[in-house]
């Protein structure tokens, strides 16, 4: 048992049930996100802010708290995670308005001094006092009454349609990455012998050549850089920094033979020329990639051709 608590203010979203959407004669699709052409539209549903106060230690992560809420307070709260330690990128969300990973955001770093009754609807979110939809406290059931570490505001990753609560639909980013062929294209790597067997051979690489893309290969496609980028905002006008980082990783790989085709593929209206060099993408990359600097270099490579 701890003697400290934290309050999470969660911007929640529940999509309209399937049967309600289907009943409209104007409904163009049964998906909450529409067909692929409509994917980036904001899905319709109920939005509100819900506060949870629970016992937690300063070194706990936001993900630890969400798991406690899910297991002991409110099983309806939806969020996504997998590895739990900054390796998979599946739990990117907005923490106090900043895109970051829930599993690496600690309370001591993110909790802000508590302002009582601060769950508002400034963003159009509805804060209700209904049972199960307003403030829910785990400490009501404890005898501790300890110090409150502060408040942390949570919302789904910006720049993407929200699916439910803290879960964003990151398919637009994954589609953009896939479009740029995120795999090695090396001539002759699968040559066959006369007997029809795959003739595998080594591609030797100097450490200097590896250093040119090694850091970029650490990208986990979490979408934090896209959520931070004011130009990306759904990916309609700009394919986004994550897709360009993925392209750059192979452009810089001495084993890859498709660099020119890759540069052509990103020299489009929604590619490199759409980057406004805001550099917001660099600030919170959980893998330590200097995304803004890399974007700068890829812009220079495209221009120099
Ligand atoms: S570059 Fe960094 S912030 Fe962007 S998707 Fe990759 S790991 Fe996430
Ligand atoms: S859960 Fe995998 S990065 Fe956070």
Q: In short, what is this structure?
A:
The chain is of the alpha/beta class and 305 residues long. The chain contains nine helices and eight strands. It folds into two domains: 4-164, Roll (Ubiquitin-like (UB roll)); 170-304, Fumarate Reductase Iron-sulfur Protein, Chain B, domain 2 (Orthogonal Bundle), CATH 1.10.1060.
Which terms summarize this structure?
single chain, binds FE2/S2 (inorganic) cluster, Fumarate Reductase Iron-sulfur Protein, Chain B, domain 2, alpha/beta, binds iron/sulfur cluster, six-stranded mixed sheet, 4Fe4S_Fe-S-bd, 2 domains, 16% strand, two-stranded antiparallel sheet, 8 strands, iron, 24% helix, 305 residues, Ubiquitin-like (UB roll)
Topology readout:
Blueprint: E1 4-15, H1 18-22, E2 45-55, H2 62-73, E3 92-95, E4 98-101, H3 107-110, E5 135-137, E6 147-156, E7 162-164, E8 167-168, H4 171-179, H5 207-211, H6 224-228, H7 241-251, H8 259-266, H9 291-304
Parallel strand pairs: 1-6, 2-5
Antiparallel strand pairs: 1-2, 3-4, 3-6, 7-8
The structure holds iron/sulfur cluster and FE2/S2 (inorganic) cluster.
Iron/sulfur cluster binds at residues 89, 219-225, 241-242, 245, 285-287, 289, 291.
Instruction: Name the CATH architecture of the largest domain.
Output: Roll
Radius of gyration: 23 Å
Globular, elongated, flat, extended or rod-shaped: what is the shape?
A: elongated
User: Which parts are unreliable, with pLDDT below 50 for 5 consecutive residues or more?
Assistant: 25-39, 119-133, 138-144
Query: What is the level 1 CATH name of the largest domain?
Result: Alpha Beta
Average pLDDT, all residues: 84
Distance, first to last CA: 62 Å
Q: Give the CATH superfamily of the largest domain.
A: Beta-grasp domain
Series of H and E elements: EHEHEEHEEEEHHHHHH
Estimated helix fraction: 10-25%
- What proportion strand? 15-25%
- Bound chemical compounds: iron/sulfur cluster, FE2/S2 (inorganic) cluster
> How many E strands?
8
| Strand line-up of the largest beta sheet | 4-3-6-1-2-5
Keywords: 2Fe-2S, 3Fe-4S, 4Fe-4S, Iron, Iron-sulfur, Metal-binding, Oxidoreductase, Tricarboxylic acid cycle
Organism: Bifidobacterium panos
EC number: 1.3.5.1
Enzyme class: oxidoreductase
């Amino acid at each position: 048992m701890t003697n400290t608590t934290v309050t999470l203010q969660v911007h929640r979203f529940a999509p309209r049930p399937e049967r309600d959407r289907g009943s409209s004669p104007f409904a163009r699709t049964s998906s909450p996100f529409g067909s692929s052409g409509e994917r980036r539209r904001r899905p319709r549903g109920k939005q509100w802010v819900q506060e949870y106060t629970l016992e937690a230690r300063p070194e706990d992560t936001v993900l630890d708290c969400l798991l406690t809420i899910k297991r002991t307070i409110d099983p309806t709260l939806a969020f996504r995670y997998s590895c739990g330690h900054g390796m998979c990128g599946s739990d990117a969300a907005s923490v106090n308005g900043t895109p970051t990973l829930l599993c690496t955001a600690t309370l001591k770093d993110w909790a802000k001094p508590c302002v009582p009754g601060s769950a508002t609807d400034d963003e159009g979110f509805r804060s209700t006092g209904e049972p199960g939809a307003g403030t829910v406290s785990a400490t009501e059931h404890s005898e501790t009454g300890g110090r409150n570490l502060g408040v942390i505001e949570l919302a789904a990753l910006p720049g993407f349609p929200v699916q439910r609560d803290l879960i964003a639909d990151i398919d637009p980013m994954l589609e953009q990455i896939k479009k740029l062929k995120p795999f090695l294209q090396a001539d002759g790597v699968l040559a066959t012998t006369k007997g029809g067997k795959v003739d595998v051979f080594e591609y030797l690489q100097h450490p200097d050549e590896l250093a040119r893309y090694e850091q970029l290969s650490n990208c986990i496609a979490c979408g934090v850089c896209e959520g931070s980028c004011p130009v990306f905002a759904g990916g309609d006008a700009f394919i986004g920094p994550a897709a360009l980082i993925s392209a750059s990783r192979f452009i810089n790989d001495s084993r890859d033979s498709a660099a020119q085709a890759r540069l052509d593929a990103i020299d489009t209206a929604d590619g490199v020329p759409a980057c406004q060099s805001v550099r917001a993408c660099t600030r919170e990359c959980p893998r330590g990639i200097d995304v803004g600097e890399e974007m700068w270099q890829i812009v220079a490579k495209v221009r120099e051709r």
